[in-house]
Records
---
Amino acid sequence: MKKLSILVMAACSTIAFAQKVSDYKYVAVPEKFETFREDYGLKNFFTKAMTGKKYIILPAIKDNWPAEAKSNFCNVVAADVLNDKNLFKNKLIVQFKDCNNTMIFESKGASKIKEFEEGLPDALKDALIKIPVSNPIALLPASNNSAQRTSAEPVVSVASTATPEASNYSNGKLDLQKIQIDSNQFILAKSGSSVPFAVFKATSKNSVFLVKMADGNTTVGYFENGNIVIDVPQTEGRFSKEVFAAK
């Protein structure tokens, strides 16, 4: 039991780490960056820069959000810019947090320009250089957002009649254990190991998952005839069908 608890904790850590800013297309920005006495044009600069990187900027008030963002807040990453005061330089920090308030990316910027009006936007420009262009993954299905505010576990279940009931699987070479993290994600881990072989996260299509492999590759997985199937990336953009049968 102790070994299983360690395994689940390691898996949760891996899932959080695997999520990248570029996985999102929606970025929520507060009405004002609270750690600055004045705006100094930072919000407008941030909005233009992120739009140029193909992100869609959303206001703090959720009433006018697109349906796919409003239906599941976990499809949106929250941004903030923090003042990192220094006597000799204008410095700031750009942060991005997911729907569980977990930090997924932080970038620091600095400027030798001492005047706030010019130096702070220059420092923000420096921080934004490190932020990748949006390359969004599949959006999560609708869920009860009121529940999300108090729990990391979405209400919508991805279970279906095609969902395997077994917990141990093998492709003839690897023996893996299926561990359900919550109703929206599970992992396959090698027997006796605390490192996930693959992390499965639900998509908007029932029984189809976005899969993060141990080598960093992202692909697709699904249930088929009680088995778990992964489209494993190969060279030249090809995929091979890897079937893990229930034991």
---
Amino acid sequence: MIPGNGRKPIIKVENLQTRFHTPEGIVYAVNGVDFELGEGETLGVVGESGCGKSVTMLSVLQLIPRPPGEIVSGRAEFHGQDLLHLSNEEIRSVRGAQIGMIFQDPMTSLNPVLTIGKQVSEPLMLHLGMTKKDAADRVIELLELVGIPEAEKRLTQYPHQFSGGMRQRVMIAMALACNPQILIADEPTTALDVTIQAQIIELVKRLRDEIGMSVIWITHDLGVVAGMAQRVIVMYAGYIIEEAPVKELYSNPTHPYTLGLLNSLPRLDRGEQGRLTDIPGLPPLLLEKPVGCPFVPRCVYAHDRCSENPPLMEIAPGHRSACWWDVKEGKARHA
């Protein structure tokens, strides 16, 4: 694996496997994921709900509830240490300080009974040892940085006094408080209207360029990734099924699932023939670990060898695909 544009890897994840023990049985949520993130790179992680995107990143930061969750195996190497095997105290010193995270729903992520000022200042006092006054001054700077007007007056307000877009800006301010090296954004614009979505995306892009941090942007929307990321990984049923530079993925998708995702996007260049298509069927429940290719029940290209789960095969520099069928050539592919 080579991060986009040959950047030096800042984090390297290998063979990550995460399961959940439920009354219905074991859910095989993440099934041997490998990826790297380069310094200053933006990596898009896409796929349908339930494909393992969020669980992968929560596992890396040891944020999955245990029990019922369990990280079965893997490594997440960050500055010479394995994040998956740090103690609770050690991983807490990484979260917020070196790796920040923006969660999907700011209303449930922010504490409703604490003021915004107190919540944003907490990581500053915890990780940077700031005094209460210094932290308050820094919070005002952060709120202004993310575009919240009258920031000083907002310190004593509570989350319910902010709009959805403003709450998400507060979450970004909190995630950036300690100038992290990596920002993980877990579908941060899903609950917002289109105009606010665009504002949040542009804000993160601007802050990324100013601060020079790396970004992992988790989304189900390939349209957002097109203008945000340098490289994309596509997940399905807890596996990475395709990985490529963003322009290569859009111009030369090689996995049937990626093709389906792209064909479901509205595009102005398709003309009258550009009807949107759906992907038939539903994602697997993952109460059993797939033996063959997990996409077989929904795939129009399925053939005999698909009973064997394909590895990620390199088909071009930096472009890997987990499919036995070459959709472009219309013939079988060999590992």
---
Amino acid sequence: MNGNAWLEIADLEKKWAMASVSISFALEKGGALALLGPSGCGKSTVLRMIAGLETPDSGSVILAGRDLTGLPPERRRIGMVFQEHALFPHLTVEDNIGYGLRSGGATKGESRRAAQEWLERFSLSGFAKRRIDGLSGGEKQRVALARTLAVNPDLVLFDEPLSALDAELRGRLRDELRTRQRELGYAAIYVTHDPAEAEILADRVLRMVPPQT
């Protein structure tokens, strides 16, 4: 294993009847990597294998010195931010952010205090009791990121988190994501098909090609 690697992906492969995707790379602690490529090249599949949402046919995922390859998602300490945010519409902003903490055993008071801290960090003070369906696209994106980071993951995966937003908001949040990542120091992998976005978000860009047939 690379001695400086926080995350090491070694020969991770997924095969289908007519195609396959295979990838290897390493990422240092606090680093940011972008997986860049057209739709259908396997970018999201790679993220899902790292997160434990899809089982690879071969290869390994080593994070913070632990072999995660056979572990379920909830034991990997990996956060994931999706394009559609995956927030709970029936919960308040505060309860969305605290959901992972409550699931991990935190008391209601502890989760609310933590949620308030993250709301302040993301300039959302006063939003605690708001409902998700009353938020803008940018506000939802901030809540989704705050919820992910509240549980202190070792790695955060972003699956096209900005692609559903309009151009102006996308540009603004792209810059904010990069600033937050540097400020808070978490390791991140971004999936995107936009070269300009990849260059802004990441220290390093890994270009992917369509799966082999």
